Amino acid sequence: MSISTNYLSGFMPNSGQHDEKISAHVAIVGSGPTGCFAALTMLKCIPEVRITLFDARPTPYGLLRYGVAPDHQGMKNVTRQFERLFGSDQVEFVGNVRIGQDLPFEVLQENFDFVVIATGLPSERALPVPVHPGAKVWGAGQLLRYLNADPDSDLRTKEAVELGDSVLIIGSGNVAMDVARLLAKSDEGFDGSDVDDAAREALAPSKITRITLLSRSPYEQVRWDPSMFKELCSVPGVEVYLDGRRSTEETDTSSAPTRPQPLRVEVFFNQKLCEIDLQEDNAYDNQIIVRTQNETSDAHPPAESPKTSFRASAVISAIGFEERHIGFGEVPADNVFRTGGCATGRLGNLAENRVLAKQTAQLVAAKVGKQSELTGLAGVAPFLAQTPVSFSDWKAIDEAEVTRARPGRIRQKFTSWSKMSDVVAQTRS
User: Fold this and answer.
1) 85: DSSP letter
2) CA-CA-CA-CA dihedral for 211, 215, 221, 223, to nearest 10
3) HSE of 409 in the Cβ direction (CA atoms, 13 Å)?
4) Nearest-angstrom CA–CA distance, 305 and 314
């Protein structure tokens, strides 16, 4: 990813001279929901604080923009609250800057009183079993990013991404529910969303006739929220079965448009994953074979249960996320804090991350003195190798995406960083 322009207008940090009114300069690495929630709390509890949110992308909001399901606009609307945050003269957004590469972390520490790392959990957790190299196995996060028009989604570089007629999802949490619902919905189900229609067309979900979800836990310990499961059951033309029995979840879909062909969603519990193989001599197409073992709650089963084989044309792994080595902030320091997923190792929901962010902000506030001796953003500006993207630049990108929206969509996102760069350059000229 690279956005490079010859314009510095639109990004003008304050003078490097010392300002007696500033109590602390705080750098937040990551402008996703956790980073923004932390900044909101700091504004409330730290008088005269100056906050700079850095992001490797030229766009703010992180997970809300590229990770939350595109048909969940209610959740994405929290960005309106964050827009007011960036409207404060105490807050700056500095996008398209990779800490540790474009800007050394040590320089950040030297110029800011406090650094908060809120980089989330960007990597898919690897499957703990052998996987045939030729099997079509993708991470749920990459699929969601693809449908959210993320230019960096791995699926965007693949020549063929059509899922086929049967999709198997490993996992039974909310992310698995998101994937199942997004693949089950007809085109009409995305009215009012910001889904990438070209990505949906490439995946060809209308051809899917069966979706299978494998849960390692029993039904009583399932990790999806009841509301998420109910939403899946409410998709017109979809029938949901739990361990072979039709779900009793009552829904009213009589007035809603249905799929071109019925879709059966089956959920199987107590399924311990063993291996993912590929049957390459299939008469119709290469079939993926997913082998599992029934894992009951008995502490000492009398004998190893036989393996069960599930067939699919594509497999989506939804077993969670983990932090990758980010190259900075690993050495403990009194002025460095970690918050959210990169601190807990768990990708929590918005409410959970709001709490974590608030706690971190309060820890920072407890250490703030009466006056900062540092210069914050002005101090690191000379070290920035390429032109950063300001919040006003982002607003230009935002307006352009809304303007180019197709009928029934609230925006049409750009799927390349170069197109965003063009918008920024045109706005600054």
Assistant:
1) H
2) -60
3) 18
4) 26
- DSSP string across 165-229: SEEEEE--SHHHHHHHHHHH--GGGGTTB---HHHHHHH-GGG--EEEEE-SS-GGG--S-HHHH
- Residue 269 tokens, joined: 């519990």
**What is the Cα–Cα distance from 20 to 328, expressed in whole angstroms?**
30
**Phi-psi sector, 168: left (phi>0), alpha (psi -120 to 50), beta:** beta
Residues 117/338, Cβ–Cβ less than 8 Å = yes
Q: How far apart are the first and last CA of the chain?
A: 22
Strand order across the beta sheet in which 287-294 lies: 271-279, 287-294, 307-312
256 burial (CB, 10 Å; 0-12 / 13-18 / 19+) is middle
> pTM value?
0.90
| Tokens describing residue 215 | 């849960």
Q: pLDDT (tens digit, 9 = 90+) per residue, 144-153?
A: 999 999 999 9
**Residue 350 to residue 92: CA distance in whole angstroms:** 22
Classify residue 19 by its DSSP letter.
Answer: -
Cα torsion 140, 141, 143, 148: sign? positive
Residue 336 tokens read as: 């460095």
Coil, helix or strand at residue 78 = coil
- d(CA 30, CA 11) in angstroms, rounded, equals 18
Interatomic CA distance for residues 265 and 261, integer angstroms: 13
User: Bridge-partner residues for 29, per DSSP?
Assistant: 54, 117
Please provide the average confidence, as pLDDT, over all residues in the chain: 89
Residue 117 per-residue DSSP state: E
Tokens of 241: 């079965």
291-302: per-residue pLDDT in tens?
A: 999 977 554 555
C-beta separation of 397 from 147 below 8 A = no
Residues 6 or more apart in contact with residue 70 via CB below 8 angstroms: 147, 148, 182, 190, 193, 194, 195, 196
DSSP assigned state of 381: G
266: enclosing H helix or E strand = strand 263-268
- The CA-CA-CA angle for residues 351, 147, 54, to 5°, reads 55
Burial class (CB in 10 A: 0-12, 13-18, 19+), 303: exposed
Helix, strand, coil percent values for the chain (each to nearest 5): 30, 20, 50
Phi, psi values for residue 93, rounded to 5°? -105, 130
Q: Give pLDDT tens digits for 66-80.
A: 999 999 999 999 999
- Residue that has been written with the tokens 């089950």 in this structure: 184
